[in-house]
Amino acid sequence: MPQQGDRRHSPRVELYQRIVAAIDDGTFPPGARLPSEPALAVRLGVSRPALREVLILLQEDGVITRRQGSGSTVNQLPPAPGLERLLPVETLLGPGTVRCRRLAVELEEPTDFSGFHLRLAPSARTCFWETVVDVDGAAACFAHEWAADAETLRTVDPALAAAVGAGPAAPDRTATMLSVLLDAAGVPMSSRSTLGATVLGKERGAAISRPAETPALLLTQTVSVSGRPVLAAKYLFPAGAPLLHLAPRR
């Protein structure tokens, strides 16, 4: 669950966006190693502590991979085979008995991740869901999903707003947000996906009785309708989770 320290602060958000923009425009292409922290801090005109904090956020969001002694590397941006077909985690983790457990439903301020990927104003509010997806009784995925603000959802498709609780209907607590939106949508949806590496962390590890340092695969997705982002998500698959069942390219 996002903590107070995850809330947006303008200087940090600006630095986060500058680095992502440099990746998108090819200054730091996928697979490239970022300059050392001292060199990058000088290049960007920021302090090393501020840069280090943002690099940690970028790693958590799957944008880069940081390794002790070898620096930071930009993750590959093209989706892995099969991820260009938009499918919920419940389908990717099959076969097996899949069940979702909702840990949190909150209406919150934008975080660095949701604010950037959903293009949210600081005053906007986004619906956040944290869900554990079990396969055959074992935790296989942590889903952190943020919807666009209610006004955007209603403009794109009123059914999407109702599906996540931005209308009179109560949100479905037995599925991931992506699954709920795909079932409700009356318009075509597309996504951009990235894969990276991270660790579970203290809170997620405690929730499933696993060490905080447990390695995890991180899948991030931004789902859009006609180019307008409606969902931003992080899906963490801890070591030992079932293999993802990806659809072949056509």
UniProtKB/TrEMBL annotation:
PANTHER family: GNTR-FAMILY TRANSCRIPTIONAL REGULATOR, MANNOSYL-D-GLYCERATE TRANSPORT/METABOLISM SYSTEM REPRESSOR MNGR-RELATED. This is HTH gntR-type domain-containing protein. Residues 9-77 form the HTH gntR-type domain. The lineage of its organism: Bacteria, Bacillati, Actinomycetota, Actinomycetes, Kitasatosporales. CDD domains: WHTH_GntR. Pfam families: GntR (PF00392). Keywords: DNA-binding, Transcription, Transcription regulation. InterPro entries: Bact_HTH_transcr_reg, Chorismate_lyase_/UTRA_dom_sf, Tscrpt_reg_HTH_GntR, WH-like_DNA-bd_sf, WH_DNA-bd_sf. SMART domains: HTH_GNTR.
